[in-house]
Amino acid sequence: MSAADGAAFREVARELTGIALSPEKDYFVEGRLEAVARARGLSLGELAQAVRSAPRGALAQEVAEALLIAETSFFRDPGLFEVLRLQVLPELIAARRAERRLALWSAACATGQEPYSLALLLVEHFPELEGWDVDILATDLSQQALDYAASAVYTQHEVNRGLPARLLVRHFEREAMTWRPRSAVRRLVRFARVDLLRPLPPLPRMDLVLLRNMLIYHDVETKRGVLASVRGRMRSDGRLVLGSAETTLYLDAGFEPSPELGVYRVKDAPSEAPGGGAGGRPDAGAEALDRGPSAPREGVPAVDRGAPCI
Amino acid sequence: MDALVIDDSRAMRTILGGMLTDLGFRVVQATDGRDALARLAETPAARLALVDWNMPEMDGLAFIRAVRADRAYEGLKLVVVSTETEQAQMATALEAGADEYVMKPFTRAVIAEKLGLLGLAGPSA
Question: Domain range for residue B61?
Answer without folding.
Answer: 2-117
